[in-house]
Structures are given as C-alpha cells and as structure tokens.
Amino acid sequence: MQTKMAYITRIAVLASAAAILMVLELPVILMPGFLKLDFSDIPAIIGAFALGPLAGCLIVLIKNFIHLSSTQTAGIGEMANFFVGAFFVVPAAFIYRYKKNRSGAMLAMLAGTLTMTLAAAVLNYWVLLPLYQAALHFPPEAIIKLGSMANPLIVDLKTFIVFAIVPFNLLKGALVSIITLLVYKKLSPILH
After folding, report:
1. What is the pLDDT of residue 2?
2. Whole-structure pTM over 0.90, yes or no?
3. Nearest to 45 by CA among 1, 110, 130, 123
4. CA dist 155 to 30, 94, 170, Å?
5. Among candidates 57, 86, 69, which has minimal Cα distance to 23?
6. In the 8-state DSSP scheme, what is residue 73?
7. Rounded mean pLDDT of the chain?
C-alpha cells in the first residue's frame, strides 16, 4: 500500500512532466492554427492507469493551473484542456482498472478517445466557443474564417466541429494512446 506522500509525489512529478509537454505544441495540417497538438495527456493517462482516475484528473488539473501563468485565452483554453483531458483519462482509467493488460489498455484508451472527442464536440459547440466569443470578443465568423482557411469544408460552426474539433481530438487521442502503449509498461514499475 502506497503512502499518501508517495501518491502526492507521483502526481506532482507527472503533473510537472505534463506541464512541460503542454508547452511543446505542434501545428496540425488541415486544422486552424489555434488547434495545436501537445502530448501533455500522456503523463495524465499513465498516472490514471497507475494511480487511478482521481490521480489522472489531478494531473490534468495541475498542469492547467501551471499553464495559466502564460495563458493567452483568459483561462478558457486551460478550462477546455482540463475538461477534454478529464473526459479522456477518467473512462480510460476505470476500464483499465478492471482489465489490466495490453488489450484492456487498448480498449481503455479507445473508450477515452471516443469520450474525449464527443465531449470536445459538445463542449466546444455549446460552452467553449460561446465563452471565447463573450470573454475575448472573438466572433463566430472569425472562428469559421480561421477554420475555412485551413480546411475549405468548414463553412459554419457545425462544420467547424465536424471537420476540425472531431478529427483533431481523434488524432490527439490516437497519438497519445500509441505513445502510452509504448512507454507505460516500462514506467509502470517506477509508479508502483
């Protein structure tokens, strides 16, 4: 049984790694410039698998608090990252808890990716994009214009969700899952 201090220390180390990875963003072709790929959910999913869903959520939360000091989105981007990350790690952690093998990990991350993608679509359409509009005075036309510059299939908010938000999150979930599958078993003994 791990002590509370060891649990907190593992979360802190993984959250620090996630915060560093969050700064290293990559542009994605056919996506608007503000949708950048980072791999900060890898430490979160590793923590969720090793320590449970609460640990995964805490890692996602802490990395976003750290990132708030350099926000350019009035905290909305960090809030979005937290919710989407939590929708990835929580279902994955619950599934992996009951099936701790390679196929269980694959199923867990597939479920996490699909849940994250659905949550990102719903949250962006109903909550996050309206928040950007209200707080940053970023009109929907500007979002659509940025989207259509990257992908001509984007002509309105719904097509922005379908052709930008959904594929972006599917890609992110797939890449995070592949890298996690490659490194988790090597890191697992350290975390246990």
Report:
1. 59
2. yes
3. 110
4. 14, 38, 21
5. 69
6. S
7. 93
